[in-house]
Specification:
This protein is an alpha/beta fold and about 350 residues long. Helix content is about 40%, strand content about 15%. The strands form two sheets. A six-stranded parallel beta sheet has the order 2-1-3-4-5-11, with helices on one face. A six-stranded mixed beta sheet has the order 7-6-8-9-10-12, with helices on both faces. The longest helix has 17 residues. It starts with 8 loop residues before the first helix and ends in a 9-residue tail after the last strand. This is LacI family DNA-binding transcriptional regulator. One of its GO terms (molecular function) is DNA binding. InterPro entries: HTH_LacI (IPR000843), LacI/GalR-like_sensor (IPR046335), Lambda_DNA-bd_dom_sf (IPR010982), Peripla_BP_I (IPR028082).
C-alpha cells in the first residue's frame, strides 16, 4: 500500500534534529544557519522527499499578496514570539503581513467578525493564534473564503499547529506529585467560561486522578496570563486560608506573579511552597522557575508554512491537519521534595 502521508517541515526537523525555525531558514537559504545545519536539513529533506517553498513564492494568482495574523493580544511574550516567526516565513514567501490584535476586548472581537467580508477583500489568508472560537465564529471563518491556518487551537476545520496542552499540564502536575506534594493548587486560565474546561486543567486533574486524589475547589482559582493576574490569583488563594504545598500555574507569567505574592506574604519558594509554570518564558531561567517548555516560535513558523502551502496548492486539496509539537519538563529551583 502506498503511503499518503505528506512530508512536512516538522518531519524534516525531527529527522535533522533541528528546530522548525532553523529548518525553515535552511530550506530558504536564509542567514544565521551554519553550513553543517544546511547540510543536515538538505539531507533530511531529500530523504523524505520534502519540497521546500521557494523564497518569494507567492502565487501569481494571489489577489492581494497580503495575509493577516490575528492574535488575542499583541503584547504578551507568547504572541510576540509566534508572530515574529510567522512573519519571517510569510515575508520570505513574498507576502505582506497585517497584524490584527483583538486587544483582549469583546467589542474588538465582535467588530473583527463583523468585518470579515471586508477583510477578505484585502488579504488572501488568515493565521489565527490561540483564539477560543464559538461555533458561529468557526462558521463565519469557513464562509469567508480565505485560506486559514492556526496555532494552539482545538478541533478546527483547517490546518493547526499546537502542543498537547493536557499532556503538558499532566507533566507539570506529575512532577509535583513525584516530589511528594499532595495538596496542590492550580492557577487556571480564565479564557473559558468554566475553568475546568481548559485542556491544561484537564491535564492537572488527570494527574491527580491517577494518584486517587481529587481537585479541592478551594485550591482552584482563575488567573489571566499576566504577572499581575498571577499575583492577584495567588493572593486570593492565601486570603482563602488555603495552604497548598505546591502550585501549578497555567503559564509562566502567571507563575511569576505567584512567586511575587508568596514573597509578599512571607512564604519562601520552594521551602514553603513549590511553584511550576508552563511555556519556558525567557525570564524563567533567570528566576529559576521550573516549567514545561513549549516551542512557541516553531509553532508560528510551522503554521505559516502550512498556510503558504495551502495558497500555493489550491488545485490539490487535502484534509486539514493537526500537528502537535513536543513539550519538555525543565526542573529548576522553584520545586523540591516536600519536607
Amino acid at each position: 500500500m502506498v503511503s499518503t502521508h505528506r512530508a512536512t517541515i516538522q518531519d524534516v526537523a525531527v529527522l535533522s534534529g533541528l528546530s522548525i525555525c532553523t529548518v525553515s531558514r535552511a530550506l530558504r537559504h536564509l542567514p544565521n544557519v551554519s553550513e553543517r545545519e544546511q547540510e543536515q536539513v538538505a539531507g533530511a529533506a531529500a530523504k523524505l522527499g520534502y519540497k521546500a517553498l521557494a523564497a518569494a513564492s507567492r502565487p501569481e494568482g494571489g489577489r492581494t499578496g497580503s495575509l493577516a495574523i490575528v492574535a488575542p493580544t499583541a503584547t504578551s511574550w507568547f504572541f510576540a514570539q509566534a508572530v515574529e516567526a510567522a512573519e519571517e516565513v510569510l515575508g520570505d514567501s513574498g507576502y505582506d503581513t497585517v497584524l490584527i490584535s483583538l486587544r483582549n476586548q469583546d467589542s474588538v472581537r465582535r467588530q473583527f467578525f463583523a468585518d470579515l467580508g471586508n477583510l477578505a477583500q484585502r488579504v488572501d489568508g488568515l493565521l489565527l493564534l490561540t483564539m477560543d472560537l464559538v461555533p458561529g465564529e468557526v462558521a463565519a471563518l469557513e464562509a469567508c473564503g480565505l485560506a486559514i491556518a492556526s496555532v494552539g487551537m482545538e478541533n478546527v476545520p483547517w490546518d493547526n499547529v499546537a502542543i498537547d496542552d493536557e499532556h503538558a499540564a499532566w507533566q507539570a502536575t506529575q512532577h509535583l506529585l513525584g516530589l511528594g506534594h499532595w495538596d496542590l493548587a492550580v492557577l487556571s486560565s480564565n479564557e473559558h467560561p468554566v475553568a475546568t474546561e481548559t485542556p491544561r486543567f484537564r491535564g492537572f486533574k488527570r494527574a491527580l486522578d491517577e494518584h486517587h486524589l481529587t481537585v479541592h475547589p478551594d485550591l482552584v482559582v482563575c488567573a489571566g496570563p499576566s504577572i499581575d493576574d498571577g499575583r492577584r490569583a495567588m493572593a486570593e488563594l492565601i486570603a482563602r486560608g488555603a495552604s497548598p504545598t505546591a502550585v501549578f500555574a497555567h503559564c509562566d507569567e502567571a507563575a511569576f506573579g505567584a512567586l511575587k505574592a508568596l514573597r509578599e506574604y512571607g512564604l519562601s519558594v520552594p521551602k514553603n511552597v513549590s511553584v511550576i509554570g508552563m511555556d519556558n518564558h525567557p525570564m524563567s531561567g533567570f528566576l529559576g522557575l521550573s516549567t514545561v517548555a513549549q516551542p512557541v516560535a516553531d509553532q508560528g513558523a510551522f503554521a505559516a508554512n502550512l498556510l503558504c502551502e495551502r495558497l500555493l496548492n489550491t488545485e490539490t486539496p487535502h484534509q486539514p491537519s493537526n500537528h502537535l509539537l513536543d513539550t519538555k519538563l525543565i526542573e529548576r529551583k522553584t520545586t523540591r521534595h516536600k519536607r
